[in-house]
Amino acid sequence: xxxxxxxxxxxxxxxxxxxxxxxxxxxxxxxxxxxxxxxxxxxxxxxxxxxxxxxxxxxxxxxxxxxxxxxxxxxxxxxxxxxxxxxxxxxxxxxxxxxxxxxxxxxxxxxxxxxxxxxxxxxxxxxxxxxxxxxxxxxxxxxxxxxxxxxxxxxxxxxxxxxxxxxxxxxxxxxxxxxxxxxxxxxxxxxxxxxxxxxxxxxxxxxxxxxxxxxxxxxxxxxxxxxxxxxxxxxxxxxxxxxxxxxxxxxxxxxxxxxxxxxxxxxxxxxxxxxxxxxxxxxxxxxxxxxxxxxxxxxxxxxxxxxxxxxxxxxxxxxxxxxxxxxxx
Length: 329
Description:
Helix content is 23%, strand content 18%. It is of the alpha/beta class. It has 2 domains: 15-76 and 115-328, Putative cyclase (Glucose Oxidase, domain 1); 83-113, no CATH class. The strands form 5 sheets. It has a 9-stranded mixed beta sheet, sandwiched between helices. Helix 1 packs parallel to helix 8.
């Protein structure tokens, strides 16, 4: 397992200055107008979706979602729990004849209670603020209230997250066992090396939906969840902020809980790359995606691009939402 990584020099003692500088360099406020609510999803245009449909050849499809059940990774941090699934009507009720339906009809019904970001999900643009400011320069208190995000709620992109997906299997290409060590910071150099190793089908283009596999989920399946939810993890380095902006991708997702490397790269910091990516770049981040089966298939045929559809459940006003992404090759 790889245990070392190389990062561009950062002043670990001054996260405030580093975050402010990266945010200023990469800020997309006003790029799509003062009233924009879709951020980098604007890069994913109708013509790019149409072209992406042409990537389907065999029709092989892969669900990239983890399970939504009580066996999930959450441990209650910030009141995030695993889904609670309760039956409202059951076959037992039907057999007992207590459901009240005529002529022998019976049925089952159920309900799920869960935090919207407890398993495979998208972070919406109202999820993170930078010094009290939300995406496109709006005051946070005018965007998200106790009634939800009434400006950039996740429903604003419910129709559009479908296009060319690209898997960057960094774990496979940078480690001997396909699993990056916890704390491994994936730099832009690492991403470019992976693209080069995988070949032309993994070239990153404007409007792409990028998936980065670290292998941490593979390890968690083998050893148990442990601190998967919130603990140390491989992930993107803070220094990738410029690449995330300049590549003009529509969205990016990983197989880890927090997307970026943990512990973070400053002496005192919490998710600094989120602070640049979401409210300043306007970038959609996906977390806890299951990329293993897709990665095996891509390694087998050498094709790392595919049609990807990953629309969130359109919970009105939500700042994030579950998704069952489907990659079709």
